[in-house]
């Protein structure tokens, strides 16, 4: 009876603290991280796990998360770049996501844009999700299936926001609109509305934001998104760009391969819509500004 009781207590401990079984360096790292709340000590054990080949993929990802929490983001980036080669091919996409999050944390916008474009090119070539049509994702402890189509829209939304950070509103508008054509949602619509406001195109912005307030898009049940759309609508009534604002906007930053690949996806996923946005025609006027 005592053996069974101890076994139940041990099982309950692992369930409550989400610590894996075993006594290797990775398990000791998770114990330090989740039970002892010793983040620095956890990093030491994560390094030992990586060097010992003990669950390298999980150790590398978890260590990056802890380093990010401790504002050691640059160190986390170098660690992921240096040791991702020890991880299997199936882990590379998720490691890219870790890097993108780290780039965002420390303001490396150019690196973030380059990696997001790389992920989109993998989709164009049919290499995303290791060739499968869906993947299992996790959010707030729940698992769910994500399609390549949904992932493409998500990446485009992130790319649009990255362009917003560089005040490249023309490029942001292109990818936000493409994202909405592929898999629309209220949050990306808010971002598109803000992008249009930044270009002093208030009537267009109000039209986009009104769709969110009217709950006409997926994601309308998120009250934070609805409130944000309402706030932006009010701002659109009063916001005025500073003198010379429009003339200072950077040009497009979309290379030919990126545009052509995206257009091919639109042929499949949005065949009934007008796929070539007017702004794409402006690319011809910005050839010398495109990033290769």
Automatic annotation (TrEMBL):
Keywords: Coiled coil, Nucleus, Repeat, TPR repeat. TPR repeats lie at residues 153-186. Coiled coil: none annotated. Pfam families: TPR_8. Gene3D superfamilies: Tetratricopeptide repeat domain. The keyword Lipid biosynthesis does not apply. InterPro entries: MS5/SDI1, TPR-like_helical_dom_sf, TPR_rpt. It is found in: Nucleus. One of its GO terms (cellular component) is nucleus. PANTHER family: PROTEIN POLLENLESS 3-LIKE 2, PROTEIN SULFUR DEFICIENCY-INDUCED 1. Belongs to the MS5 protein family. This is Protein SULFUR DEFICIENCY-INDUCED 1. It comes from Centaurea solstitialis.
């Amino acid at each position: 009876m005592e053996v069974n009781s101890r076994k139940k207590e041990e099982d309950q401990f692992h369930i409550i603290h989400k610590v894996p079984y075993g006594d290797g360096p990775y398990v000791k790292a998770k114990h330090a991280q989740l039970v002892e709340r010793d983040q620095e000590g956890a990093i030491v054990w994560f390094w030992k796990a990586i060097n010992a080949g003990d669950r390298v993929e999980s150790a590398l990802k978890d260590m990056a998360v802890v380093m990010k929490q401790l504002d050691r983001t640059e160190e986390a980036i170098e660690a992921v770049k240096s040791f991702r080669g020890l991880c299997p091919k199936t882990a590379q996409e998720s490691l890219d996501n870790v890097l993108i999050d780290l780039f965002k944390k420390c303001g490396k916008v150019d690196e973030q844009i380059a990696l997001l474009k790389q992920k989109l090119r993998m989709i164009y070539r049919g290499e995303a999700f290791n060739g499968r049509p869906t993947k299992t994702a996790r959010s707030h402890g729940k698992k769910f299936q994500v399609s390549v189509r949904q992932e493409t829209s998500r990446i485009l939304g992130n790319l649009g926001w990255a362009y917003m950070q560089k005040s490249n509103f023309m490029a942001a508008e292109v990818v936000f609109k493409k994202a909405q054509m592929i898999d629309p949602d209220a949050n990306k619509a808010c971002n598109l509305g803000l992008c249009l406001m930044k270009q002093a195109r208030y009537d267009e912005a109000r039209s986009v934001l009104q769709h969110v307030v009217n709950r006409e898009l997926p994601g309308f049940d998120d009250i934070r998104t609805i409130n944000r759309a309402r706030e932006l609508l009010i701002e659109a009534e009063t916001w005025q760009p500073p003198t010379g604002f429009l003339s200072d906007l950077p040009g497009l930053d979309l290379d030919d391969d990126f545009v052509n690949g995206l257009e091919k996806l639109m042929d499949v996923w949005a065949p009934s819509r007008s796929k070539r946005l007017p702004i794409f025609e402006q690319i011809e006027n910005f050839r010398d500004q495109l990033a290769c």
